[in-house]
Give the backbone structure.
Amino acid sequence: MLNDFKQRQEKFFKKLEKGRLLKCPFCTGPAKFYPRKIYSGQAVALIELSGYEGYVHVKKLESDVARGGDFAKMQLWDLIKQKEKSDTDTHKRTSGYWRITKKGRLFVQNKIKIPARVRLYHNKILAFSKRQVSITDVLKGSGFDYEELMSAR
């Protein structure tokens, strides 16, 4: 039975590979792979966050990306971590506080590369691309100069 499920799942994912929006045979909801990549605005926000120690509220950051959902997507690569929200605070969905991770600092310092893309299905990570990018790769062609950004901190 498990083998049958795996075969159906693999067949379904092969159809999704073609980029089509399908109906999920398991939950009947819309099904699509969502490839995400880290882009220059996120890299700039990460550089800004690296200037702080501990958790920082996004309102303190100047980057426009910090106030949008793309900022939070950096946690897919384990570059940032969100502070847990207080159980007593029922008015907010999240705490709004973030910190850079060790991996995030290494990425900002251009010491490591990360997968260029992540593939999501129902907001769960399915796979990372084999191609790796550095922070300078991400900033290339965007009008941002890595050396200039880092020296301005």
Summary: The mean pLDDT is 82. The first strand starts at residue 22 and ends at 23.
